[in-house]
Amino acid sequence: MGKKLWGGRFAKKTATLMDEFNASIEFDQKLYKHDILGSTAHAKMLAKQGIISQEDCDSIVKCLAEILEDIEAGRIEFSIEYEDIHMNIETILTERIGDAGKRLHTARSRNDQVAVDIRMYVKDEIKNIIELLKKLQKTLIDVAEENKETVMPGYTHLQRAQPVTFAYYMMAYYQMFKRDEDRFEDCYKRTDCLPLGCGALAGTTYSTDRQFLADELGFAELCENAMDAVSDRDFALEFLSSCSIMMMHLSRFCEELVVWSSSEFSFVEMDDAYSTGSSIMPQKKNPDIAELIRGKTGRTYGNMITLFTIMKSLTLAYNKDMQEDKPPVFDSCETVKASLEIFTDMLRTLMVKKDNMEAAAKKGFTNATDAADYLVSKGLPFRECHEIIGNIVLTCLKRGIAIEDLTLEELKEFSPCFEEDVYGKIDIRSCIAAKKSYGSTSFESVDTMIKNAREDMKK
Questions:
Q1: For site-directed labelling of 360, which of 168, 269, 342, 457 has its Cα 20 to 30 A away?
Q2: Annotated catalytic residue 157
Q3: Is 90 within 8 Å of 113 (Cβ atoms)?
Q4: How many CB atoms lie within 10 A of CB 401?
Q5: φ/ψ bin of 24: left (φ > 0), alpha (ψ from -120 to 50), beta (otherwise)
Q6: pLDDT of residue 459
């Protein structure tokens, strides 16, 4: 076993169990590319500032590129002995080029090294997640466009409430995922702050150029306080929070699809490619993808709580607890990307049972509010209209009929204000078309939403 890079003041080797427990290479090897990018920029800065020779810099940069190539080709096996991705790469570098490799760690610490690596990783993955969110948003707009005339019941308390269109429903989810995109973009801004060059916690005595590092690595600004920079994981917490909120939105949507695909609703049917069967019941077609995404939402919540708990009560600056920040970030990132990708494909191939949706909208007295509004237009106070229509609904329930099934004479028994035009006002499609407020379910309003969304997608 080789000597630890930090082992100068130790008289004994670490126990094997200690090495295994202390190491993070099993998970932080995912950061190999970011670590090499950071080290390359650091070497260039050291040479620029005259801290190391240009010859040593060239040797370091060339070897780091070769190490990157070897890692991606599967020619390098990392070792628990060297604990993490940072010391594994530095050890390989030193083995290959000797003393020049030993000079790379001048004017930096693993504390600022890991901080910049995880920030670069989160920045890259935020971009990937936003691209997937945009694909989902486009799919929602397309599904809405195809269903502008598809009438369905809107629900509150999972009880039929008022008639809406399926397009309107899809655009509601569009707004949710648009907010998710905005949240990730905001998170990106706070992640885009360079900690490299801060050292362990107090800065460095070398005349470094951190702005050069920021320019090389594509960071918008520098972390101002070194102690904060190496101990801050707010950006990771914010990232996990954004992941959790987005997965909550996916979970709500999945719950709707699970309910709607049941025989009791029969509003939609999943494509065979995104469904499974039963090992015992031949007739089954199960919405497993929607259920799995619903379940994985709890997983992302758990990752967020994990990191919140890790960071709770930690003194400044860096503590080894923070090594555990990466597994929840990595796991949520992969979960979110996989969920977004498969959900978008599942939604794109969804079969909408338009006739069943409209038939359901015509039941459950979803036009009751419009009937009350009709009486308001005749001059009656809304509360009085509410009571009249409530009495009508009670009568219809007893007779097993809809409001529109009552004759005009029967309606007039409840109020003389009813006239023949009431039937046009309480027709389901008329109820939708009559909505005037901004953001309503009217066909015209939804058409505007779709046009606005398509324009927004161009930005």
A1: 342
A2: yes
A3: no
A4: 12
A5: alpha
A6: 83
Confidence of residue 19 (pLDDT cuts 50, 70, 90): confident
Q: Which of 264, 234, 254, 345 is nearest to 295 (CA)?
A: 254
Residues 6+ apart with CB under 8 A from 146: 352
Residue with tokens 């920021």: 214
CA pair distance 23, 168, nearest whole angstrom: 52
* pLDDT of 6 above 60: no
Give the residue among 72, 119, 68, 109 at the shortest CA–CA distance from 89.
68
- Which residue in this structure is represented by tokens 């992941």? 243
Confidence band of 7 (pLDDT split at 50, 70, 90)? low
* Active-site residue, selected from the candidate residues 266, 278, 377, 430: 278
Q: How far apart are CA 366 and CA 352, in angstroms?
A: 20
Q: Which of 157, 207, 263, 279 is catalytic?
A: 157
